[in-house]
Every structure is written in structure tokens, then in C-alpha cells.
Amino acid sequence: MSRRPNAENANTPGARRPGSLNDASHDDVSPLPREEYVEQAHLFEVLAARMRENMPAQEILESVREEILATTKLPMAVDFMLAELRHLGAFATAMERLPHYFTPFQSFVMAEAENDRQRFDIRVALEILRREAAYRAEGASRQGLFLYQLEVLCRNRMGYDSGLDAIAKDSAFDESWRSWIFTVRRQIGIVDTADLLFVRSEFYHERKAAEQGNPSLVGELIAEATAAGFPPLFGRQEGRIAWANRKKDPLLLFGALHRQLGYPEAPRPEAENPEERLLPVLARRVEQLESRLKLVEEEQRGGIDLNRFYKPTDFDTPNRNE
Q1: Which helix (H) or strand (E) covers residue 183, if one does?
Q2: In 18, 105, 279, 287, which residue has its Cα 20 to 30 A from 87's Cα atom?
């Protein structure tokens, strides 16, 4: 007996939805076996959780390596990451040198987190990588994967130029997707994000056929666009949501995609809690007050010895040749 997909199954991440272009196989979108992505998600989750406890990253990698399944390739990747961390003090360089295991977007996210010039928390970066690995393990689609990665760039104010270039290098995207991603990289900020999605959806051809007064022309219009090198990349539902969110904040578009289609949501940067920083600030002020009180006590006892505040120079040491 065949089972009809219910609403719950249709809203789960990675589920096939009627009217979408989610027809790519799991091997095309997620080239690694499912167990690899499950263990990757566990690695990033443990790293983020234990970093909040101020544990050294080297100790975390050494301990989590024993937790990872030995039947996967991740323990070897962790060994290489641990060696790179000891020599260079970074994760991103190791991930960049393992392009067959980590995607260019994963390496880009970690490199942005380790960049001293960026205000991008590494714990947020690890949560981004965890959610992406979990989504690939559940059965990702190209549409959901691209929209998740684009939302990550938008929410965290990361560079669109280098970020979209890293997305385009992902083996999950074929040549049609790669060409369109480069178009998005050139036009983002100039053309509305919703319009960029709408014109490459099946719903765009449906509206075009309806405007011509012949809804049956949808197939012909899609065939003509495909022959011209512009095949639809998004399904009818994605196109309808994009049309409804034209000339709005792109974050509203992403929110509607999460609610309606169950696509993964990018983690949001957590607001700093002022109470967590209050204790260190008070400790520093107490130390400053103690040093000032010591100076006042020395002044009352007969004066402050200023020699201890000066570093001895060559002029202060006697010349033995004299």
C-alpha cells in the first residue's frame, strides 16, 4: 500500500515536497555517507559546548576523538586538525587542506571566525556548521542548502563576494546552479533577493503563462528557458514565497521559507548579557583601587620610590672598561 505524505512529513527538513525541484539524489547533494555528517554534527556540537566551559581546544579535540565512530573518516581529519592547531593555532587551514572532506563553505565560515578583524563568534560558527551537517545527514536539497548558506551570510554580515564564491565551489551544486550563484554574487545588493529567487522558479513561468492567457504553456516556457541555459532552480512553492516577499527585508523571506517548507534556520548571534561581564569589570576596578591605595600609603610613609617604574638602561650600568 502506498503512503500519502502528510503535512508533518512535508515540513521536515529534506523531505520531498510536491511542486519542488528536490529531485537530486542524496549522493549528489551530500557526497559523504550519512554517518560522516552525523559525526561531524557531533564534533561541532561538542566543540561549541566545551568551549563555553573555557576548555582548551586541543584538549577538546583529543577527548572528542575517542567519542567519534572509528568506522568513519572523521578521526583522521581530527588528527590532522589537532596537528594544525598545535602548529598554527587555527582550524580553518586544516579544513582548507581537506577539500575532499570539508566543503569550501565550511572552511570559509571557520576562517571568518578565526579572523581577528571580524566580530564573528567562533561558537556561532560551530553552530552553523553543526546545523549544516545535521541537515545533510537528514537528506538535504540544493534549494534548502543554498538558502541556508545565504541566510548565514546575511545574518552574520559576512562578505558576500568571498562567501558566495565558497558556496559555488561546493560539489553539491551543478553547473546551472554555479552560474546562477555567480549571478547572485554580482547582483546582490542591487537586485532584490526575492526577485533573484522568483525569476528562477517554476512559479515565474506559471505567472508568465497566465499573463499570456494560456496556463498550458508552462511546460513550453520551462523548456525554452532550459534550452537557453536558464532552467528553473526553485519549485512552485519557493517561487510563491519569494513573490510574496518582494521589496521586503530578506530575513522575512528566510523566515517564511522556514515556516512553510521546513528549510533549516541559520543561528542568530546571541546578545551579550551585561551581567556576565559585570564581575570581571568589578574585579579589574578593585585591582586598580588596591594599587592606588598602595601608592597613597607609600606617600604617607615618606615618598614613592619611582625607580621601580623605570626600566634600567645601558647608561645605568657601570662600564667595566673604565
Answers
A1: helix 175-187
A2: 105
